[in-house]
Design goal:
The protein has 203 residues and is of the alpha/beta class. It has 2 domains: 69 residues, Translation initiation factor 3 (IF-3), N-terminal domain (Ubiquitin-like (UB roll)), CATH 3.10.20.80; 83 residues, Translation Initiation Factor IF3, CATH 3.30.110.10. The protein is 34% helix and 27% strand. A 4-stranded mixed sheet has the order 2-1-4-3. The N and C termini lie far apart (74 Å).
């Protein structure tokens, strides 16, 4: 019998073996799904195999249990959580700044930056600042904002509509739900070795 077999569970650990006090459990059977059995019977089956009866879903009635090596099972669960945390994207707020008289090249650069941020799942705060007498024509700034919104509409949704805040217009965009990252479909260049081989075949 393993040392951990009947130890008091921590707040994060599931109940195992004789810690399970329900009279019956729903035992997971490989290839057959689950079957309801007496808890004592399930524990005896686990002990006969040198394994543990682990309660993996306590909220069901009766609770769902599985016969596994508890130490190995717990290690695999922790490993899986670490992988999920590693792969989880943390949403950040990126900012791009515009001017009412932004040139075409600068505008395209800012637009492409916004698209890139959105495709990665981040939010984009767009700030358009007025200087001097430019504040007398806020409609020019709004036109730029509307133009950008139209250009990124395939990847963005409006989280905060464009509005004046002092001497600037601010708008916040977020990635469109279900947006998938674009896959690079450009053909890969033929390696020099492959080129030599092909040229040799042609001669």
């Amino acid at each position: 019998m393993q040392q951990h077999r009947n130890r008091p569970p921590s707040s994060k650990d599931p109940r195992i073996n004789r810690q399970i006090t329900n009279p019956k459990v729903r035992l997971v059977v490989e290839g057959k799904g689950t079957e309801v059995v007496d808890t004592r019977t399930a524990i005896e089956q686990a002990e006969a195999r040198g394994l543990d009866l682990v309660e993996i879903s306590p909220d069901q009635d009766p609770p769902v249990c599985k016969i596994v090596d508890f130490g190995k099972w717990k290690f695999e669960q922790q490993k899986r959580k670490k992988e999920q945390a590693k792969n989880q994207h943390v949403i950040q707020i990126k900012e791009i700044k515009l001017r009412p008289k932004v040139g075409k090249n600068d505008y395209d650069i800012k637009k492409n930056q916004a698209v890139s941020f959105l495709e990665k799942g981040d939010k984009v705060k767009v700030t358009l600042r007025f200087r001097g007498r430019e504040i007398a024509h806020p409609e020019l700034g709004m036109a730029i904002m509307n133009r950008l919104l139209t250009d990124v509409t395939e990847v963005a949704t409006i989280e905060t509509p464009a509005k004046m805040e002092g001497k600037q217009i601010v708008m916040v965009l977020s990635a469109k739900p279900g947006l998938k990252k674009k896959v690079d479909t450009k053909p890969k260049p033929v390696a020099p070795a492959e080129q030599v081989e092909k040229s040799g075949q042609q001669t």
